[in-house]
Amino acid sequence: MKRKNVCAVLTLAVCMTAGLAQAQENWPHWRGPHHNGISDSTGLPMKWSLTENIVWKISLPSWSAATPIIWGDRIFITSPSKSEPKTEPPEQDQQQRRRRRPSLDPGAIPVLHF
Known about the structure:
Elements: H1 2-25, E1 69-71, E2 74-76, H2 94-99
Antiparallel strand pairs: 1-2
């Protein structure tokens, strides 16, 4: 029985450390895997400009304050498809405004791959 417990604990420890190693390779949310802005990578540039230490860049369809997500060899970022002038909604009572919701249909918003 004791041998089974030791095996179970060792298996659990290996699985947990394997998960931590995988999490450090990705940058899944704002300020990194641990929300502290620290990377385990070495040899990173200390300064950059529009031309210095830039490996690639892409123009977005519109301004975005989104944080890039790095997962494996892919980078994800959200951006509006185009910039449109803001218009005030027509006067409505407060109850009607509360009922307005964006579409949750996955096909309603196009996904652009760059």
